[in-house]
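Reference record:
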Amino acid sequence: MELLGQRWILRALWELEPGPLGFLELRRRMGNCSSSTLSERLQQLQNAGIVEKRVDKTYELSSAGIELGAALQQVWGWSERWSAHLVTCSALD
């Protein structure tokens, strides 16, 4: 769980969810994340078995990463429903 709490980890997982990306494209999609930080986060995710580096040097979610992504989708879905609920409640005030 500590790994998931680190800055840029969830964003990297989010960006890799649709499919493999090269380092430069992943960095472009992540906005303000520096190259050194992204490199460090990808290494941490690889060490945890969540991300794999392919022969073509792109990064993709491993089977564990795909399973984690499914769990995170549930959390993100809950978050969207809950924030919509909060907007509705505040509109009634």
Q: What stands out?
A: Residues 43 and 51 are 8 Å apart (CA to CA). Residues 63-92 form the longest helix (30 residues).
